[in-house]
Amino acid sequence: MISLLQHHTFALPAFATSLIRIEQIDELKQIDWNTPFIILGEGSNTVFVDDFQGQIIQIANKGISVNETDVSYIIEVSAGENWHKFVNYCVEQGMYGLENLALIPGTVGAAPVQNIGAYGVEVKDVITKVSGFDIVTGRQQVLTSEECEFAYRDSIFKHTLLGRFIITSVEFELKKEWLPNLSYGPLKSLQAPTAQQVMDEVIAIRSSKLPDPKIQPNSGSFFKNPIVLKEMAHALLSTYPEMPTYPVSNTHIKLAAGWLIEQANLKGYKIGGVEVSEKQALVLINSDDAVNKDLLAMITHIQKAVLAKFGVALEHEVRLIAKSGETKVEAPTCHK
Questions:
Q1: Euclidean distance between CA atoms 62 and 86, whole angstroms
Q2: Residues of the chain with pLDDT under 70
Q3: Which domains, from first to last, does the chain contain?
């Protein structure tokens, strides 16, 4: 058995049958795919809530290649590259468009699975292709951005291709004609900034809100920002006029999960070794040698408290892995 304590940033005690580190994509052809498996990058969006009865396949291939056209940079990046280091590399090389996504933990290969996003930008906006290994055919396959079926914190890799398609590289297109995206919150105060200044501000904001997992084990933003019908949002605004809202479409509005959790008076709330961060209520931290039952109880408690106060169901964004694979703590659907 292999300890997984160092392989997920929430650092719950857990074990797996084996761990295989993939540094060359051809090594994927040697794996016995009949054995239960979980694909893992840096473990920043995955928490093992039990011993996993199978093998961990850790994607750790490296490499960045850049092709230039008259209007854009086409960048192919291996799935095992660290995301923030890649963003930093792009800004240093004068290739702009990813700076709003700085300091998001994890690997490049995990980015399209979650369709990661922050400060007005989603990664789907700049992805052109995703390449991967299809375990059914045993061959490499390339998907266009449209074929990835991107949605809010969602993609085909969480549904139809879950457990079948292993991302090995991602292609991005960054336009040479660049304008800063200052649409979100604190970035609006920046005056004609450079991409480096946008990135520095994003890093400063994120660092002020999100605890460093190397110091305080955590998995970053734990819950998705809920998207509700416009009528429901307006009804809530009549009671809570200061509630942050973000238009999504003509019919739906996105709410801030962290604000909802904070208004439910849960900042600093503790169950066992798990605590709601005092810095940012959207973050749960392993403050005192937490165990799996502490985390599961905390998720349920937060979901029930937010539902009782606002009538809004919260869904956890972080992937939970139990004995036989991925599991979910379902949000309650009615008031208790």
A1: 11
A2: 334-336
A3: 2-59 (3.30.43.10), 64-201 (3.30.465.10), 211-327 (3.90.78.10)
